[in-house]
Amino acid sequence: MNAKMRVDIWSDIMCPFCYIGKRNFEKALAEFPAKDSVEVVWHSFQLNPDLTYQPNKSFYDYVAELKGQTREWSIQVHKTLVQTAKYAGLDYRLDQAKVTNSLDAHRLIQLAKKYNLTNDLEERFFRAYFTEGALLSDHQTLLTLSTETGLQPDVVKQVLQSDLYKDKVRQDAQRVRQMGATGVPFFVFNQTQAVSGAQQPKVFAQALAAAYEQWVQTKNEKIDIVGGAVCTPEGYCN
Predict the structure, then answer these.
(1) Domain assignment of residue 10, yes or no
(2) Across-strand partners of 194?
(3) Can you say whether residue 224 is alpha, beta or left, with left for phi > 0 and alpha for psi between -120 and 50 degrees?
(4) Cα–Cα distance between 154 and 63 in angstroms, integer?
(5) 122-138: burial string, b at 16+ Cβ within 10 Å, e else
(6) Which CATH number characterizes residue 182's domain?
(7) Model confidence pLDDT, tens digit, residues 95-121
(8) How far apart (Å, rounded) are the C-alpha atoms in residues 131 and 96?
(9) Cis bond before residue 33 (omega within 30° of 0)
(10) For the chain, N or C: smaller number of CB within 10 Å?
(11) What CA–CA distance (Å, rounded) separates 133 from 96?
């Protein structure tokens, strides 16, 4: 397998800026000349690990309480957010978004790493939450969405009926905090430079180009070899 430059992304599937950041990054990557040499690795970060499902609380009320503001303030602020999402090509219907805990969804994202399906599952969860009003703590909903992206139902059920991958979710969050991140989305290019937030595609394009140039230089560094007696796979020793 040919070596690829890594881009590590931390996000929460209930974070509106994470979905926008994902789409803007994808636009930059699609135009990047060396896109086939880039590997994207998704990581978990729960913005509110202690959050519980609150069926009688709207997304607007939840954010208003979190910020110590009124519902009217929240609605007005999110009108701008919805427009920003629209510019990115996304259809946000926040009046349908259900306030709940995202741990089980993140555990399935960890599972998806084994099958190279994390990007597909992230996308499906984002769309389900922000556009379709899906309850992303409901196990049947998670099962349906996960199998749509290619995960096997029995494997998904095994995870949902256990505590599998809880530690992985927490370790992901701890790792990015150690890097100095205070929120998500958070993008790390080639483990050398980071971009925080839902930046415009041109910002991601610049980061990709700079990181890739550095990666190529490191990859092509020659190793000085001191000659001596060796044996080769062909059986020659000298």
Answers:
(1) yes
(2) 188
(3) beta
(4) 36
(5) bbbbbbbbbbeebbbbe
(6) 3.40.30.10
(7) 999 999 999 999 999 999 999 999 999
(8) 8
(9) no
(10) N
(11) 5
